[in-house]
Amino acid sequence: MAHRKKWKNPARRRVTPGSSPGGFVLDPTAPPTQIEVMAFDLNNLLEQQLEGAGHLEPVLGRHALSWVNVDGLGDEAELREVARVFGMHHLALEDVVHVNQRPKVEAFGDQLFVVLRMPRGEDGMDTEQFSLMLGKGFVVSFQEHPGDCLDPVRKRIRDARPRIRGGGSGYLAYALLDAVVDAYFPVLERIGDRLEELEQRILTGSDDRALEELHGLKRDLTTLRRFVWPMRETLSGLSRLEHPLLSEEAKVHLRDTHDHAIQLLDIVESYRDVGSGLMDLYLTQVSNRMNEVMKVLTIISTIFIPLSFLAGLYGMNFDRGSRWNMPELGWALGYPALLVTMAVIAGGLILYFKRRGWLSRKD
After folding, report:
1. 3-state secondary structure the chain
2. Domains of the chain
3. Over the stretch 277-334, which tens digit does the pLDDT of each residue have?
């Protein structure tokens, strides 16, 4: 079984309760901040890795739309400079840094701020916060760690697809959110394969660790549900939001992404039911095996009860001088006769149990 990651308490905060809004304390383990820019229009593309946020302003404004991707939240000065360049609200920057936010969408004047959870890693059960700020002519995305599921969006931009090149910030935001949502489907596919494998192992009784793995899967599904449920609400609200940044075409596509989120939630709920059913099946299998063991022990005990009685009766060693004591103790054939009697009793009980069907194994 794969090593399970340490559970992160979502209630833990690094700021003092009651502190002024907009303040934040960086996670000391957060990776250093890296900034990547893709600025483009229908005919031109500028893709550049910046050495720092101070190089942002010369790059912006040359093209119709700029996508600035910020990886790593470990440099306060860089993050504040990014926020200054794009005029981000201080509460939005606070939500970017404090990464236990619930998926949501908020409007800050002429800008929109969206938060989702993005799967990362091989199994996808390790997630990170994905924050998105979009305004006129720009989209800024914030990720906790380098590496993401957004390469298909980058490829569409590099391939000069006219819809994403000329769709504005609303359509680009949709493409990024859709990539994040769709990244959950391979995760659920792997979980479905693991549930199918566990079902076979439980039915064959080939692995005593199945219950532990099943319990871990149910915990993973509960975690996924905690991410997907508010994500569905966020996308629903975003697709109905009246805002100048969201064109009608972008809202149509956002409704499609909302449908994908509903599908994810349906799959998660069905897998949770399957997990509960498999746990009941495992406990039933254990109970059945225990019943088989108890049945065998009961049959053995039942056979030996009369044999023990006879052995105890003739093992009392009373004096044979009395006519009321055991005359068989002086009989030359007493011992073999007792053994034959005991064998007949045991054989008769076994035959009776077999006719009653108590010796047959029911699979």
Report:
1. CCCCCCCCCCCCCCCCCCCCCCCCCCCCCCCCCEEEEEEECCCCEEEEEECCHHHHHHHCCCCCEEEEEEECCCCHHHHHHHHHHHCCCHHHHHHHHCCCCCCEEEEECCEEEEEEEEEECCCCCEEEEEEEEEECCEEEEEECCCCCCCHHHHHHHHCCCHHHHHCHHHHHHHHHHHHHHHCHHHHHHHHHHHHHHHHHHHHHCCCCCHHHHHHHHHHHHHHHHHHHHHHHHHHHHHHHCCCCCCCHHHHHHHHHHHHHHHHHHHHHHHHHHHHHHHHHHHHHHHHHHHHHHHHHHHHHHHHHHHHHHHHHHCCCCCCCCCCCCCHHHHCCCHHHHHHHHHHHHHHHHHHHHHHCCCCCCCC
2. 34-283 (3.30.460.20), 292-355 (1.20.58.340)
3. 888 888 888 787 788 778 878 888 888 888 888 787 777 666 666 666 677 767 777 7
